[in-house]
Design brief:
Blueprint (H helix, E strand, L loop, with lengths): L1 H32 L22 E5 L7 H14 L3 E6 L5 E3 L3 E4 L2 E2 H7 L7 E4 L11 H12 L3 E4 L3 H7 L7 E2 L6 H7 L4 E2 L5 E3 L3 E4 L4 H14 L1 H11 L19 H9 L5 E5 L6 H14 L3 E6 L5 E2 L5 E3 L2 E2 H4 L5 E4 L15 E3 L7 H12 L2 H10 L16 H33 L1
Parallel strand pairs: 1-2, 1-6, 2-5, 6-7, 7-11, 8-9, 12-13, 12-17, 13-16, 17-18
Antiparallel strand pairs: 3-4, 4-15, 10-11, 14-15
Helix pairs in contact: 1-9, 1-14, 2-7, 2-8, 2-10, 7-8, 9-14, 10-12, 10-13, 12-13
Length: about 450
């Protein structure tokens, strides 16, 4: 019994540091994805245009932020259709974090929206995934949604935005879907919903829900088709480079577990590189989302939003984003500098930084972002990232290292060091016992 206990303790000692270190690192990586930015003044509001002849569509941001692609991709597609007044809204107009560290100042608060529209409910509300789904902190959003639905608003739940709708009781008795990694837990948490696996979107009449991340593009186009016709939807898809309208790609239906590359990156990237993402005036919303979400999903590095002077920028369709640093001040801490947006070129940059212009303008923005990730990180991580975002990879060639070897080597080295330490201590104990008996 004593020998068994000693061996068990030895095994625990060997694995303690790599396992504990991996757990701490993974929690830090996940927390960093939605961490709020520093306190900054909220830029003065502008008076957004409102055309009473058009229906209004809003993208709802939670009080603790939202997933960047879930929010920005539907926003740009709805604007590209030309058929809606489109706004980002939240319970308060203040900086809110999108995943990867992109801070958005919503166009309007709920009260501002009511004033702008003369109290009319929006025709469509898009609900992205938010980090505190199911928590009391979502109360302002769920209460507002229930009120809008009672007045005829259609709902589009993108990815785990379906969880927000389910927590508000708005999916009870309805078929719905969500991200393949979360739908199982939603089945337990919200059994009154008829959860559907293996579909990019599910239309239950007044509510459409979508599977993971970029499935929100298909759901948005479906809503545009319903409200404005298939020609308008096809033109909107073409405007953002989405070639799957009318030919919906399959979704992931596997076990809801991270891929080995994701586990390695999350657990043993103990000193993650810092990747600066340059915010430039007029940049496309999908271009921004493609970079921030690709790196946030990869868990292989950390992104830092920067602008030339540290001041806010306005995107192509008028959204306000706040950087977390100015380029010159952040430069010494940056390992890379990515510049989203086709055709963007920077002037002078700090010494030691070579801008990487992510988007070619010849392909869908996320394809370019995933290719860059594969080249600079590894192909296994890039494929996992595409899978979590429901990005079709048919015909997408990825070149780069095959696997995150450096991160994999760290736990192996720690285990070997632990084994060596146990062997040395065992031999030392044996030597001491021999000397004592002598």
């Amino acid at each position: 019994m004593r020998t068994f206990l000693r061996r068990t303790l030895a095994v625990i000692a060997v694995f303690l540091i790599p396992v504990a270190g991996g757990a701490v690192s993974a929690l830090a990586a996940l927390a960093a994805r939605s961490a709020p930015g520093p306190d900054r003044p909220t830029p003065a509001a502008t008076s957004p245009a409102f055309d009473s002849a058009k229906p209004t569509a809003v993208v709802v941001i939670g009080d603790n932020g939202a997933v960047v692609s879930d929010a920005l991709a539907p926003y740009e597609i709805l604007v590209a259709s030309g058929r809606f007044n489109v706004y980002t809204v939240a319970s308060q107009r203040r900086p809110l974090p999108l995943t990867g560290g992109l801070d958005l100042v919503p166009d309007l608060s709920f009260a501002d929206l009511a004033e702008l529209t003369g109290g009319a409910a929006p025709a469509l509300a898009v609900i992205p995934a938010i980090p505190d789904v199911g928590e009391p902190s979502t109360g302002p959003v769920t209460t507002w949604l229930r009120d809008q639905v009672s007045r005829g608003t259609l709902l589009l739940g993108v990815c785990n935005g379906a969880g927000v709708l389910a927590s508000a009781g708005l999916l009870d008795g309805r078929p719905a879907t969500a991200h393949w990694m979360r739908i199982g837990s939603f089945e337990s948490d919200y059994p009154a919903v008829n959860w559907v696996h293996g579909r990019r979107f599910v239309d239950s009449g007044t509510v459409v829900t979508t599977a993971g991340v970029l499935s929100g593009i298909d759901g948005t186009l479906h809503m545009i088709e319903r409200l404005a016709g298939s020609t308008v939807a096809a033109n909107a898809a073409r405007a953002v480079g989405w070639r799957y309208y009318g030919n919906t790609p399959p979704v992931v239906t596997g076990v809801a577990m991270p891929a080995p590359a994701a586990i390695v990156n999350a657990g043993w990237t103990w000193a993650p590189p810092t990747v600066g993402v340059m915010l430039t005036p007029g940049v496309g919303e999908i271009d921004l989302a493609s970079v921030f979400d690709t790196h946030a999903q990869s868990l292989a590095d950390r992104t830092l939003a920067v602008s030339a002077d540290g001041g806010p920028i306005r995107s192509r369709h008028g959204l306000t984003f706040l950087p977390r640093a100015d380029l010159a001040g952040a430069a010494p801490d940056l390992d890379r500098l990515l510049v989203p947006g086709a055709g963007v070129r920077l002037g002078r940059v700090p010494d030691g930084l070579e801008p990487v212009y992510v988007h070619s303008g010849q392909d869908f923005a996320y394809n370019d972002a995933v290719r860059d990730l594969a080249r600079t990180t590894d192909v296994a991580t890039a494929r996992w990232t595409a899978e979590t975002m429901e990005l079709p990879t048919d015909g997408l060639r990825l070149d780069g290292p095959a696997w995150p070897w450096q991160q994999t080597a760290l736990p192996i080295l720690l285990i070997l060091l632990g084994v060596a330490a146990v062997i040395c201590l065992t031999r030392l104990r044996t030597t001491v016992d021999t000397l004592v008996r002598a």
